[in-house]
Write a structure and sequence with these properties.
Elements: E1 3-9, H1 12-18, E2 28-34, E3 51-58, H2 63-81, E4 87-91, E5 95-100, E6 103-115, E7 118-126, H3 131-136, H4 151-164, H5 169-179, E8 186-190, E9 195-203, E10 209-212, E11 218-221, E12 227-229
Parallel strand pairs: 1-2
Antiparallel strand pairs: 2-3, 3-7, 4-5, 5-6, 6-7, 8-9, 8-12, 9-10, 10-11
Helix pairs in contact: 2-4, 2-5
The structure holds adenosine-5'-triphosphate and biotin (BTN).
Biotin (BTN) binds near residues 12, 13, 40 and 95.
Length: about 240
């Protein structure tokens, strides 16, 4: 694995994209600060001080499988560093959240971008960010772990877990399912042109969210231009 570190970059995902032909499989790019962080579907990603931002290049990857794998790895790594009171979980499909007394906050986003047959996986974790930052930037669903652990410790553990994992996708999915906070809860599925209500009951063998609808039927939710929320809250 090659690790490139920078004080500041516009976006670690963009940096890999710009140099993709020069980089080998598993190249990781870290920036202490991002000035133009990107979220899913063109959304803006705020990268304040205290956020861990890095990206990895995965040659010949499957974007769905990779998103689920990194979500599981990041969630399990963060659980090791957090107190038992802070429940770290996965909000389907690419967000890591914490549940403190039923109040869910997004503390990490994972962005997988497919470039030809390659995938760029970008991870932003709010390790130690002041809560006032999110209020000031209009992000009511965002939160911080308030962990003083050095960024490089968490980063290197996530990378190592990825490099040494050898579990089949079916095992990744069973871990994903136990960590996914949506399963067993009512959901509001927001598509670009409509909203569908249901109850999330399972994760399919393709990693989709499997939901019961209001008429006794079932539907599956793929990633893409869709948001899965709670009926009234973020989860
Ligand atoms: P959903 O999948 O339900 O739409 P989401 O609103 O979190 O979830 P994503 O596309 O997963 O949407 O993530 C991008 C969003 O994350 C941005 O639109 C913004 O609301 C939020 N966001 C931006 N910066 C941060 C941050 N540092 N921490 C937490 N959330 C952030
Ligand atoms: C999301 O929740 O929509 C995904 C957010 C991904 C943010 C990370 S930070 C490192 C990498 N560089 C970016 O510009 N985005 C990802």
């Amino acid at each position: 694995m090659q690790l490139l570190t920078f004080d500041t970059l516009p976006s670690t995902n963009d940096y890999i994209r710009e140099h993709i032909l020069e980089f080998a499989d598993n190249t990781a790019v870290f920036a202490d600060k991002q000035t133009n962080g990107k979220g899913r579907v063109g959304k803006k990603w705020e990268s304040p001080n205290g956020q861990l931002c890095f990206s990895m290049l995965v040659k010949n990857g499957d974007p769905i499988g990779i998103t689920h794998l990194f979500a599981v790895i990041v969630c399990e790594v963060l659980r090791k560093f957090c107190s038992k009171k802070v429940q770290v979980g996965i909000k389907w499909c690419n967000d890591i959240v914490i549940d403190i007394d039923g109040n869910y906050k997004k503390i990490c986003g994972i962005l997988c971008e497919k470039i030809g047959t390659d995938i760029i996986v970008g991870i932003g974790i709010n390790l130690n960010v002041a809560d006032s930052y999110f209020a000031e930037h209009g992000l009511p669903n965002a939160g911080s772990l308030h962990l003083e652990t050095d960024k490089s410790v968490i980063r290197d553990l996530v990378i190592a877990e990825y490099e040494y994992h050898n579990k089949p996708f079916v095992d990744v999915l069973s871990r994903y399912k136990t960590l996914c906070v949506n399963v067993g809860k009512p959901v509001k599925v927001i598509y670009p042109t409509r909203i569908v209500y249901g109850n999330a009951v399972d994760i399919t063998d393709k990693g989709e969210l499997y939901c019961a609808d209001e008429n006794g039927g079932y539907f599956t939710v793929n990633s893409g231009e869709v948001s899965v929320r709670g009926i009234t809250d973020y989860v």
